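User: Let's play a game. I give you a shape written as tokens, and you guess the letters that built it. Ready? Here's round one.
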């Protein structure tokens, strides 16, 4: 049986400001007070899992144990079909130490060349408790990539991704709209239904 989240404090197990902001916005209607792992001085664990789910669980367990609070972790990325699923779980690493996503987006487009630009964003959420219990939720949004990059909203690869049924990139889309259709929003909806409602 799924464990419900009680109390109002939750650690967002991420050092990515864009991701923390997005998760905090999704949590705000539920009276939760999210705090980031970075603000608590919790170091980033080594993400050596071979799936989004495994890496989300690594981060959630590390933060729950360090903070003695429930921790919600997101591991997500861009999956490009023509690149055999890359950058995938290595999406952030493609941006390098400086998190240069302009460079990473150009690299993705260069690697694709004249092949099919079909892609999807995938999100795995893990909710862990200090006692080791964990729940998992997933979401996916399909689309295609465009170049040049468009828009300055969102973060990461958002400016080159157009979701199916839309003609604007996630980088051009208003946050409220993106929160209704994104991979993170879909995983979050499953989390909300199972653990918050």
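Assistant: Ready! My guess for every position:
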């Amino acid at each position: 049986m799924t464990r419900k989240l009680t109390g109002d404090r939750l650690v967002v197990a991420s050092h990515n400001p864009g991701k923390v902001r997005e998760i905090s916005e999704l949590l705000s209607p539920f009276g939760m007070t999210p705090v980031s792992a970075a603000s608590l001085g919790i170091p980033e664990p080594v993400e050596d899992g071979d799936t989004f789910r495994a890496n989300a669980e690594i981060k959630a367990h590390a933060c729950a144990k360090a903070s003695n609070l429930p921790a919600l972790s997101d591991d997500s990325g861009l999956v490009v079909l023509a690149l055999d699923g890359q950058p995938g779980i290595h999406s952030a690493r493609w941006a390098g130490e400086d998190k240069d996503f302009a460079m990473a987006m150009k690299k993705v487009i260069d690697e694709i060349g004249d092949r099919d630009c079909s892609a999807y964003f995938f999100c795995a959420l893990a909710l862990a408790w200090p006692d080791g219990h964990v729940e998992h939720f997933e979401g996916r949004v399909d689309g295609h990539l465009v170049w040049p990059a468009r828009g300055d909203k969102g973060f990461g690869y958002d400016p080159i991704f157009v979701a199916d049924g839309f003609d604007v990139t996630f980088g051009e889309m208003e946050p409220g709209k993106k929160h209704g259709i994104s991979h993170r929003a879909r995983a979050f909806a499953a989390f909300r239904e199972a653990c918050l409602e």
